[in-house]
Description:
21% of the residues lie in helices and 35% in strands.
Amino acid sequence: MPDPSRSRSFSFAFQRPLDTWARWFAVVPTRSYVRVDDDGFEAVYGPWRVATVWSNVVGVERTGPYRGWKVAGPAHLSWADRGITMAATTVGGACLRFREPVRGIDPLGVIRHPSATLGVDDLEAFVRLVDERVAAATSRDASVEPPDHPEGGYVATVRAVLNWNRRDVDHHQRSVERIDFPELDRAGDDDDQPAEIGVGARFHRRYRTRVRGGGLGPERVMAAIQADPNVLADVDLAPFTKVRGESGGMRVGDRYVIEIAGPWKGAVEVVDVAPRSFRLATLEGHMESGVIEMRASSDAGEDGDLEFTIESWARSHDRFLDVMYDKLGIAKALQAEMWSIACDRVAELTGGDQVGRLHVVTERTS
């Protein structure tokens, strides 16, 4: 198994106006990335994916600059050598050469590529890391596989909506005149998705659970979550994939994609990290525009009850999602079950027992 602490993810570089051309082919910057671990790499560029193990990589070199028409739009196939290029920048990229050609340009794998050129944003660091991993690779081990990002399934999505409607929770709902969003430094990039660009009513939701008898205090619980948010997730429903930053911890600027089946998947960026909390800001493609915070506290030091809270301030991203969330309630139920599962997992993580029912507050501007 690869060491998760040695995993790292890189974003693709998107240059104007090439980013607009890329979006026409479903290549969204917030969901395009390259993941590297001890066993191999995975490059996801919109609907295209290339992955292989390090023992299949002959070498890597920096190439470019490129002409705009050679990288504009979708992933490109070289008619000269059948290499695949995933890039939305003319500055340059990293060309990885393979012993055995890999699949990528077509879903059936009919065309195989002897090389892949990747236009990542931190090019020097990426080339250096690939060189290190290739040098450390030995002979091909049949049990070794490259990274493969997890995705939620439709069955789990339907089950989550039904389960929320059957959950026994202490749920308080009320209409309010105003909801004030937290003041914080957001991502600030072109793909930032703040509440100001959302539609419909504003929502403030809070999920709170208490855990008694657990063996972990708030700092250790939060450290485990920050190291891998999937400790809180039903990976069949909504797994987290880190698409920027190093695994094993959480830092401001790190990014994740939450892969729920259907139109609900979305990207978030870490905008604040503390020993007992962290905040995530929504990015382009998320079903909401807003902020999510998770925090842990204790009544009386390490021996007191642990209180875990998930709090969000958001609006729907577009008209369709406003209907699905606010009018029909489908997306709202899906989200509520997702965060309720996270609260359940905190008890499992600490080895303690939940005290009473899950407490949920939903405020909506009238």
